[in-house]
Amino acid sequence: MDNLQILDLESNLLSSLPGPAFKHLKSLRILTVNNNPITHLGKNDFKYLSSIETLKFENCQIKNIEPSSFRPMNRLYELNLANNQLRHLHYQIKKSFSRLTVLRLYNNQWKCDCHLRWLRISLQSIPNWDFGSNSPICESPNNLRGVSWKNVAPDKFACSSTIQVPSATSVEVVLGSNATLKCTAWGDPAPIVTWFMKNEQLNENYNNVFDVNEGEIDELNSETGSSVESVLHVLSAKKSDAGSYMCLAENLAGKSEVMYNLLV
């Protein structure tokens, strides 16, 4: 078995890869595992397959691939993941794609957001890359559902704005003192934050009453995206300043909002 170069495990009802069984297949170049009910590829599944050049997992049920799964295969040039249930591929998998010349991704459930942008950029950077007739299709978000990757620019692979809801959204201050409302939002691209008082947007006309400080802060445990912190200062609060305030965060992928209540 040491000299075996081609192994076909197609249609064997495998629910997982028999990783330890590959231990002595040091010369294996082509592995076909099509048509098996495999849902997960783990970090040790290819531990002994450093010589693999072609890997085929078409028409399985793969939903998740661990970031380091393909790392042992530094000769991999063809990877077929078509007809599975993949929504994302972790950006760390990129390290295993350096030698790829053939990559099949069509007929999956791709969520075309910022977490998948790295892959779209990687494919675009390959000279003469062409999806042909089997381009991957976006399953979500709704605004990209059914759209072919070849018709979606990398910057459209975006993540909607989200707001980190504070522990307390009701603030009480003494008449004549200053009040502070803080809003932290994340998105990719970075969201634009706007404040509203009683459904009216606060702009430069309110500078003598309100002051807004804004700036980017550290990323919130993500490999992509930016966080923006916007702080609304209500100066010398009056009774008329009491009521509802809204923080609205918005980017090209969507928007979110949080309501605050000021008591004076």
Automatic annotation (TrEMBL):
Query: Which PROSITE patterns does the record associate with it?
Result: IG_LIKE (PS50835), LRR (PS51450)
Q: Does this UniProt record's set of keywords contain Signal? A: yes
Keyword annotations for this protein? Disulfide bond, Glycoprotein, Immunoglobulin domain, Leucine-rich repeat, Repeat, Signal
Q: Which InterPro entries does this entry report, sorted A to Z?
A: Cys-rich_flank_reg_C (IPR000483), Ig-like_dom (IPR007110), Ig-like_dom_sf (IPR036179), Ig-like_fold (IPR013783), Ig_I-set (IPR013098), Ig_sub (IPR003599), Ig_sub2 (IPR003598), Leu-rich_rpt (IPR001611)
Cleaved signal peptide residues: none
Query: Gene3D superfamilies from the entry?
Result: Immunoglobulins (2.60.40.10), Ribonuclease Inhibitor (3.80.10.10)
Tree of life domain: Eukaryota
Task: Cite the Ig-like domain residue spans from the record.
Answer: 166-264
Q: Name one Pfam family in it.
A: LRR_8
What protein name is recorded for this chain?
Answer: Ig-like domain-containing protein
Q: Which organism is it from?
A: Helobdella robusta
> What would be the name of the gene that encodes this protein?
20214897
